[in-house]
Amino acid sequence: MRVLFAGTPEAALPTLEALIASEHDVVGVLTRADARKGRGRTLHPSPVAATARGAGLDVRTPATLKGEQAGDVRDWVRALSADVAVVVAYGRLVPADLLDVPEHGWLNLHFSLLPAWRGAAPVQRAVIAGEEVTGACVFRLEEGLDTGPVYGRITEAISGRDTSGDLLERLARAGAPLVLDVLRSVEDGSVRPEPQDDALATLAPMLSAADGRIRWEDPALSIDRRIRGVSPAPGAHTTYQGARFRLGPVTAVPEVTDLLPGHLRATKHEVLVGTGDCAVRLGQVAPAGRRWMPADAWARGSRPEAGTVLGAASAMNDDGEAMS
Q1: How many CA atoms lie less than 13 Å away from 225 in the CB half-sphere?
Q2: Given this model, what pLDDT does residue 39 score?
């Protein structure tokens, strides 16, 4: 089939690469525009753009697919005569008048077991919620938010140490063959899409920096899940001496219950912090302006005083900016 692909981040690459290597013909690629990154603020293409251009594909990077300002790219989409569009984390809305332009519509690889976790952050929300199983679905886009019928699905276990980054990487790899299987069944007419039960829907809105702020009065298990769920982005953080202090995954220490929430105890070999029930052992940390390092190495260098409280009297807002 003639396939239009729409995607942006690294999570979309396994599917794009599988399509390029398949019997299908990738006739065009939609992705986000080049973005400025790094200290030099130089322009960098999205991972999908770089891979697609390297394969010699026709790549378009419109700011929107809506309205007159998108007239050229809308005409291009129609002129491609694609049989189907495949979407993986594109990051742009597809307007209603384009949804039926490919004969078989726009099929989206979504990283949850729909109707669970409809929205922009399904993997992160599943980890934060402490779910033990998630998965990926291929469904047809319609005007509602991730509401279309499901063409195929796979499941994936969530381990007690998975970050959202770990889990997304596995789902992205496992989702690529799922997409190819769905395309084959669409092409031969054997697929029977399954309507979603809206009564079972849960939402997964995009995460902000505020979602990564750790509240030490929460139970250790909740803190552990939140840190893993926001890792690597937007990232978990607290404050130390009024400055942002980034946190990697932690380990609960059930036998230590004498530390108050946020209170820190550092030895040569570990750094413990009190929570709403038991202590947690810090793993990797990144003080303001510094790189990631083991928490015990940070403590040996910084020598935090007895009675130090993380997150106390923060002088920073949730976006890491100084508060007046």
Answers
A1: 17
A2: 67
Residues 6+ apart with CB under 8 A from 46: 8, 9, 31, 32, 33, 34, 35, 61
Q: Which residues of the chain have pLDDT under 50?
A: 314-316, 320-324
Would you say 282 is a known binding-site residue?
no
Sole residue written with tokens 């969530």 = 158
Strand segments, DSSP code E, in 242-314 are 243-247, 251-253, 264-266, 271-273, 279-281, 284-287, 293-294
Q: Which residues contact 111 (CB under 8 A, 6 or more apart)?
A: 11, 122, 123, 134, 136, 168, 171, 172, 175
Judge contact between 181 and 172, C-beta under 8 A: no
- 99 among annotated binding-site residues: no
In angstroms, rounded to a whole number, what is the distance separating the alpha carbons of residues 37 and 121? 22
Structure tokens at 24: 């299908």
**φ, ψ (nearest 5 deg) of residue 177:** -65, -30
**How far apart (Å, rounded) are the C-alpha atoms in residues 138 and 155?**
12
Question: Is 113 a known ligand-binding residue?
Answer: yes
Regarding pTM above 0.85, the answer is yes
190 known member of a binding site: no
